[in-house]
Amino acid sequence: MRKTEMNQQTNQGENGNAEPRAKSEKEAGLFDKQLSRRDVLKIAGAGGLGLLLGGGGAYGVMAAKETLNHTVRKTSSPAGSRAPFYGQHQSGIITPTQNFLYIASFDLTTRSLADVRKLFQAWTEAAAVMAEGVMIGDTNNHLNLPPSDTGEAAGLSPSRVTLTFGVGPSFFDSRFGLSGKRPASFGDLPAFHGDALLPEWCGGDISVQVCADDMQVAFHAIRNLVRIGRGTAVLRWMQEGFQRTGPADPAGGTPRNLLGFKDGTGNPDTTDTGDMNESVWVQPQDGADWMRGGSYQVVRRIRMRIEVWDRSSLADQEQTFGRHRDSGAPLGLKDEFAPLDLNAKDSSGQPTLPMNSHSRLAHMDGKVKILRRAYSYSAGMDTKTGQIDAGLIFICFNRNLQKQFIPMQRILAKSDKLNEYTVHIGSALFACFPGTTKGGYIGETLF
Amino acid sequence: MRKTEMNQQTNQGENGNAEPRAKSEKEAGLFDKQLSRRDVLKIAGAGGLGLLLGGGGAYGVMAAKETLNHTVRKTSSPAGSRAPFYGQHQSGIITPTQNFLYIASFDLTTRSLADVRKLFQAWTEAAAVMAEGVMIGDTNNHLNLPPSDTGEAAGLSPSRVTLTFGVGPSFFDSRFGLSGKRPASFGDLPAFHGDALLPEWCGGDISVQVCADDMQVAFHAIRNLVRIGRGTAVLRWMQEGFQRTGPADPAGGTPRNLLGFKDGTGNPDTTDTGDMNESVWVQPQDGADWMRGGSYQVVRRIRMRIEVWDRSSLADQEQTFGRHRDSGAPLGLKDEFAPLDLNAKDSSGQPTLPMNSHSRLAHMDGKVKILRRAYSYSAGMDTKTGQIDAGLIFICFNRNLQKQFIPMQRILAKSDKLNEYTVHIGSALFACFPGTTKGGYIGETLF
Ligand code: HEM
Ligand code: HEM
């Protein structure tokens, strides 16, 4: 497919397969469109599509198509580019990983499915305009009203912001009459060996994952969704994550986690539609029609014992992952992307990849794959221990939890050498809907 | 002064006045030097200057000069550039604001001034190599030792990282025999009207402010300083801040705070040496010789009541600051940088800038200036209220606290309309040392 064709396709809303993966930054031209909220401020205010929601006030969402022609401009800056919102799949799953994450889980305070539908309609409209870098709503310049957009992203570029919505297992209890729609593979996670889960980091009826290359743009998005949700949904938890400044840093490559190792090397290829259909997207034959083209998301908050890690030798650290710290290559090899050879032995006949090494165990038989999309977190000092509270917000997407994440995590929880240095303190599970097209809304297949 | 001359001067360590301010990004060429930690990994390990510290192990800090010739390369990416560490003043004060902040306060666990001196010597060496984007220490490739650098910034650019060190008023108690050295203007802050300070965000014997354009680079810096400090100093608190992705975003300008308003407009001009000597840098005639060329830093953690703010009208919001939300201009005017006219009246004879508006009150008589260098924070959900915990990490630098911050905050605490929407929950004060030159260390004028 030629570039212009792909570009057009992207504009038509088929973002799912057209998105380049992080490794091929040459293709970043695909995301060239850039838009400043400041330009939009000037043309906002007229002819918006108003949506009345909840008790908190009037929130209008300006229709994006009215403004795009005036404001789209070209740039080669990745920070300034758009990730298309509409498409067969939701964005933020196979979208090349952005630098910042906010992920929030909500509890519904309503028992009416109609309210939930209205919430997702309003969230969809807001998400679509934010993805274009447009201010939310049409009351940003009325002196006597609260502005419909909180304004802290005014003047900033879209920054490839993506918003990804899902529902948790608890959504299928008796409240909304949808218990019959719960997919067979989608129940609460089993308890895993070593779990030290804190209720404040677990569960939730519905979820939003926001990713962007600008932390302020990401904050703005989650904050405005929380605001729109008032009266219908309350926050249950919110987590913030980061990785190194990717595309902007010419020295970039696979990002490193806070244990200093490259993280993401063994991920499946998001540009390979076959692989994605195999491991990520729910297929027609999987049942639960409303999830076709969607994906199941696992969120684990994993604290790192960085002080313990910092005292262990380089050899210990490399044995833990089964990879070299410097290059990211499997032990004994030089190329980061060399395949793991589970049969390789060293001169004394020992396996080169230790039996309890993280990469080896997570690799399983080489056929079970998940799509990881993790971020680092640091959350100040732990007031109990006086140590830095930091770790990994582990996020992965699966076509079927029973066949992918659950058996994998069972093995890791039992045998992974990495467990000496980590502790799982949060856990949540969401069924992330398929995408939608203009005029539709995320969740329409279910509600 | 011609550019090449300035460039040389910068290399010679006179960073203080040569740094461009955020507004003049054209001058960013000054910070062109870029260096990848990955290149350095290869040449590290030989001939380093070893420093033995505390009980936690051996930490070597490689002398930067041995590697620079091999690794410095040119780029036009602001994310990749260096902020010089050595100079008359510490970096991170008048350095154009980077995108991310980590600020940590420590309590000393030693009573020996020699230990404190060793700590600052080791911190200085580590800071200098991190500012160059170099890995800390010379044991990063020894299999049997813990790596001297924790590695998560390997391969990343220096990202204009700055490290700024200070001591709090408590440092001058009886422990180190330095009570006679406490500057007359440097005592604990008075209690201000409305203060709701939480001990966990207050005080500290010593401090490090880390700023960088890459959050992972900033995290790496603070984490490694914490590590080096083990056995001598323990964390008291650590705060994380952000602003929008500045230089990388072509739509950038004055950043907005989380109330949606441009923040920083009224700051003095950091490129004006006269202004900086007047308001920021301690002068010979100020006493406390060891602070000459240093500056007094105030850190206030100010929580925003964003839900209340979000319900107030645009008129209310603009009256609160005395400025327009969209343009940042003083009320009634169009230009963001137009001077505040305290005498302006509207058609009904009322002051255009409300008497209790934040800008008006903070402007005082127009002669008292502080240098603000604030960052936004978001810290997940407040588990008590279910609301987003977000606000401003207010940081400012002063030549004399008694004449600048304290009278200003007295007025604001009493009358500022902004107080309806904010609450001060943390407070700390540090005397930030003057800079140092190669071979010296930060703090040498005092210890
Ligand atoms: C703090 C916790 C964790 C850290 C620091 C971590 C880090 C890493 C690292 C450094 C690698 C090697 C590079 C790569 O292939 O990306 C890796 C591989 C992998 N990890 Fe993790 N991981 C963590 C938790 C988990 C969990 C909970 C799972 C799933 C249950 C998981 C699944 C995988 C998989 C599937 C691979 C690729 C294996 C292959 O090569 O096929 N990881 N991880
Ligand atoms: C959450 C708390 C605060 C917020 C959101 C805030 C925000 C702002 C904003 C939007 C402006 C106008 C634009 C500008 O000139 O930068 C401003 C000005 C200013 N603020 Fe604040 N501020 C806060 C706290 C403080 C505090 C605690 C002080 C000092 C005690 C302070 C001192 C100043 C000064 C000196 C100015 C410039 C006034 C002038 O034009 O001369 N601010 N602030």
Automatic annotation (TrEMBL), chains A, B:
It is found in: Cell envelope. Residues 254-435 form the Dyp-type peroxidase C-terminal domain. Residues 1-30 are annotated as: Disordered. PROSITE patterns: DYP_PEROXIDASE (PS51404), TAT (PS51318). It is an enzyme of class 1 (oxidoreductase). Binds 1 heme b (iron(II)-protoporphyrin IX) group non-covalently per subunit. It catalyses: heme b + 2 H(+) = protoporphyrin IX + Fe(2+). Residues 1-15 have a biased composition (Polar residues). Pfam families: Dyp_perox_C, Dyp_perox_N. It comes from the Bacteria. Residues 90-243 form the Dyp-type peroxidase N-terminal domain. Involved in the recovery of exogenous heme iron. Extracts iron from heme while preserving the protoporphyrin ring intact. This is Deferrochelatase. The gene is efeB.
